[in-house]
């Protein structure tokens, strides 16, 4: 499992996670190495598989050994490494998210409960205030989030990052952590893969000026490839194919930039 998806899974558990359960996952080692997880003693309970019906059993100590009691066979010793627990290191998660978007107005501690302010990120038009709340799947979690945000100065555009659940809420948008950023497994740094302004619904500014002379011809090429069944799914690859087609047909003319062609592909596919 990818490191960020695994981090989302562990955060969504809402408590300690068993290190033994994830030891063979390469993403787990990445999260530990870069400080996204921290050791947190031993698990409070384990699953007893010695009975006819597996059940939860509290972890206890006997004669200096860790284990649990089974109704059928008595005390079952367990190696401490099997019981090692981990917890998400939220300050580390918040700090890396703030770095990824070069945020201002950061806050190093939780606002209230489990709600954190990541900071304000500049977009092409308006700033967006980023927040973090572990999960947003229930009405209770939504109320906790609203209670925390009620202590903040009102921001016009707000985006909440969660590990699981994007329950619709008035005047804010939620996005999953692993949909917003990706992780460099070598450095542990996060990189944005989605634009916070777009996700938050910030309207784009009209830059003014004359419309691009390439617009009509590039749009026709995109539609031609769609109608002929030649269009590919990936936006970047499709833009490259459209630009190559333009260059083939117009070898003596100047050409638009690849980034401009990507914008036309996006507009034609979304109907904007």
Describe the largest sheet: 4 strands, mixed
Counted beta strands: 14
Indicate the proportion of strand residues: 15-25%
Overall pLDDT metric: 86
Helix content: 25-40%
Order of helices and strands: HEHHEEEEEEHEHEEHEEHEEHHHH
Quote the distance from N terminus to C terminus.
Answer: 35 Å
The poorly predicted ranges are none
* Shape field: elongated
Widest beta sheet: strand line-up:
9-10-11-12
Category from helices, strands and their pairing: alpha+beta
Number of helices: 11
- Rg is 25 Å
Could you describe the 3D structure shown?
The chain is of the alpha+beta class and 272 residues long. The protein has helices at 3-12, 19-22, 26-33, 80-83, 90-100, 139-149, 177-180, 196-200, 215-227, 235-249, 258-270, and strands at residues 17-18, 37-42, 45-48, 55-58, 60-62, 65-70, 74-77, 84-88, 116-121, 128-132, 158-162, 173-176, 181-183, 190-192. A hairpin with a 6-residue loop joins strand 3 (45-48) and strand 4. Helix 9 (215-227) packs across helix 11 and helix 10 (235-249) packs across helix 11.
């Amino acid at each position: 499992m990818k490191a960020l998806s695994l981090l989302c899974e562990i955060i969504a558990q809402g408590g300690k996670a068993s290190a033994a359960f994830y030891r063979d996952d390469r993403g787990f080692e990445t999260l530990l190495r870069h400080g996204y997880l921290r050791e947190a003693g031993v698990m409070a309970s384990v699953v007893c598989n010695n009975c006819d019906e597996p059940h939860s059993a509290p972890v206890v100590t006997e004669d200096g050994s860790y284990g649990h009691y089974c109704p059928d066979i008595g005390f079952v010793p367990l190696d401490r490494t099997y019981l090692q627990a981990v917890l998400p290191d939220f300050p580390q998660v918040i700090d890396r998210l703030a770095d990824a978007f070069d945020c201002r107005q950061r806050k190093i501690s939780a606002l209230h409960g489990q709600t954190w302010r990541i900071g304000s990120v500049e977009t092409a038009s308006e700033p967006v205030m980023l927040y973090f709340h572990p999960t947003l799947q229930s009405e209770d979690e939504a109320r906790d989030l609203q209670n925390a945000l009620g202590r903040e100065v009102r921001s016009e555009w707000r985006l909440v990052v969660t590990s699981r659940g994007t329950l619709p809420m008035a005047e804010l948008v939620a996005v999953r952590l692993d949909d917003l950023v990706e992780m460099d497994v070598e450095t542990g740094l996060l990189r944005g893969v989605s634009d916070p302004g777009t996700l938050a619904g910030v309207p784009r500014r009209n830059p003014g000026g004359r419309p691009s002379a390439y617009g009509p011809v590039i749009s026709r090429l995109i539609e031609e490839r769609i109608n002929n069944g030649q269009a590919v799914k990936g936006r970047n690859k499709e833009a490259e194919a459209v630009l190559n087609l333009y260059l083939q047909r117009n070898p003596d003319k100047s050409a638009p930039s690849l980034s401009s062609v990507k914008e036309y592909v996006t507009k034609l596919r979304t109907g904007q």
